[in-house]
Amino acid sequence: MNLFDVYPLYNVVPKKAKDVYVYDEKNNKYLDLYGGHAVISIGHSHPHYIKLLKQQLGKIGFYSNAIQNPLQKKLADEIGEQSCLHNYQLFLCNSGAEAIENALKVASFFTNKKRIIAFKNAFHGRTSAAVAATDNQKISSPLNLQQEVSFLPFNDVRALEIEISKGDVCAVIFEAIQGVGGLDEPEEDFVYAMERLCKKYDACLIADEVQSGFGRSGTFFAFQKYKISPHIITMAKGMGNGFPIGGILIHPNIKASYGMLGTTFGGNHLACVASLAVLDILKMQSLQEKTKSLEFYFKKKASQIPQIKKIKGRGLMLGLEFDFEVSDLRKKLIYEQFIFTGGSSNKNLIRILPPLTIKEKHFDQFFVAISKILISND
Ligand SMILES: Cc1ncc(COP(=O)(O)O)c(C=O)c1O
After folding, report:
1. 131: CA distance to ligand 1 center in Å?
2. Ligand 1 atom showing the smallest separation from residue 209 Cα
3. Domain endpoint, select from 233, 266, 284
4. Smallest Cα–Cα separation from 180: which of 333, 321, 346?
5. Burial class (CB in 10 A: 0-12, 13-18, 19+), 133
6. Which domain-ending residue is among 284, 316, 333?
7. What's the 124 CA to ligand 1 centre distance in angstroms?
8. Per-residue pLDDT tens over the stretch 191-244
């Protein structure tokens, strides 16, 4: 049977991985500055993560959400402690898109409205409402067009007020640092305006932290650079270090009712333990705190390379913009220098999303490699 051919693949077959390195079948060692798309947070195959998952597998891997699973409450408490969002409520699911879908659904239930405001260049996933709120017509099918979504530019408060004041908006959804879109961020004033206008016109503010959450940006969630309280926060990628898990945090003012949300696999025992192991390591190794100095080091090194026109992002969610398309550069980084990086919808931008265990010496290796390629291209 053939695979449904939806991915243009790089010709690398990973066989094993350890911390910030991935090894292929010929034992080539790749530096992972992509983290499998911001997923690897505590490093590949962390011994604590392996130990807790193996232990849990020997006890119980899964049972239905119809009965008690105390690991979910333990996870909720730990996320509450590390994010300082103690009063929020946790609902667990299995992926980023599912988190978005549930967040939009909660917003619609809560406000009894259905239009969504999303932003230019946003990426929120590929399921029904999530893809409709994604600013890429090519990946929306006719079925997805039934959702009512308005796309606005960041930082245009007037445009936002004109749309939201029409009274039919259930949610304003934003990424505090755009991922797939290429690391753009809304300005501070606009972030506060979004919160103010959502309150005024009875809409929910949704912070999509699927990519930027769980310590990657230097704060637990990227929106926490500002003093706002979104109604709903979505999370997924770094949450399980590769074990499929997603979730939403819901403001205490939004009350749950039986049947409002539900899932078979979401919040299963293994997924909870994977995420608890991630939170243990984030805390024990102070990984979130370390992202700040790593960001500073990376930006200093990047600013010494004249071909780099713009350095974007925060923490370990970073972007390097050139005045040419970077797909050849990224291929050379993989095939000649054995370094994985990420792309984005901005074709001139390289995305850097390493495991949070990355060290300065790994960035040194990257900048030597990129300089070599740039010099040989001249
Ligand atoms: C900001 C953001 N939201 C949602 C998603 C969708 O997540 P998933 O691919 O797990 O469905 C992504 C995936 O890249 C993302 O970057």
Report:
1. 10
2. 1
3. 284
4. 346
5. buried
6. 284
7. 5
8. 999 999 999 999 999 999 999 999 999 999 999 999 999 999 999 999 999 999
* Identity of residue 296: F
Tell how strand 21-24 and strand 29-32 pair up.
Answer: antiparallel
Range of the domain at 150: 47-284
Sign of the dihedral through C-alpha 281, 285, 289, 292: negative
**Does residue 192 sit in the same domain as residue 146?**
yes
Residue of 211, 212, 214 to test ligand 1 pocket, by largest number of atoms within 8 Å of CB: 211
For the beta sheet containing 14-18, the strands, ordered from the edge strand earlier in sequence to the opposite edge, are: 14-18, 21-24, 29-32, 339-340
- In this predicted structure, the answer to whether residue 131 has a pLDDT above a threshold of 90 is yes
**Domain containing 41 — which CATH number?**
3.90.1150.10
pLDDT of residue 377: 80
Distance 229 CA to ligand 1 centre (A): 21
Block residue for tokens 């809304």: 186
What does the block give as tokens for 335? 């095939």
Q: Please give the model's pTM, rounded to 2 decimal places.
A: 0.98
Same domain, 114 and 231: yes
Query: Does residue 355 contact residue 44 with C-beta atoms inside 8 Å?
Result: yes
Of 3, 231, 208, 245, residue with least CA distance to 101 = 208
pLDDT in tens, 184-205: 999 999 999 999 999 999 999 9
Nearest to 84 by CA among 229, 206, 272, 280: 229
Provide the pLDDT for residue 378.
76
Q: What confidence category does residue 376 fall into, taking pLDDT thresholds of 50, 70 and 90?
A: confident
Nearest-CA residue for ligand 1 atom 3 is 124
Interval 19-67: pLDDT, tens: 999 999 999 999 999 999 999 999 999 999 999 999 999 999 999 999 9
Instruction: Kindly state if the Cβ of 94 falls inside 6 Å of ligand 1.
Output: no
Whether 8 maps to a domain, the answer reads: no
Task: Give the count of domains, the chain.
Answer: 2
**Does ligand 1 have an atom closer than 6 angstroms to the CB of 183?**
no
In the block, which residue shows the tokens 């006719």?
A: 142
Centroid of ligand 1 to alpha carbon of 34 (angstroms): 14
Rounded to an integer, the average pLDDT of 81-102 is: 98
Q: What is the mean pLDDT of the chain?
A: 97
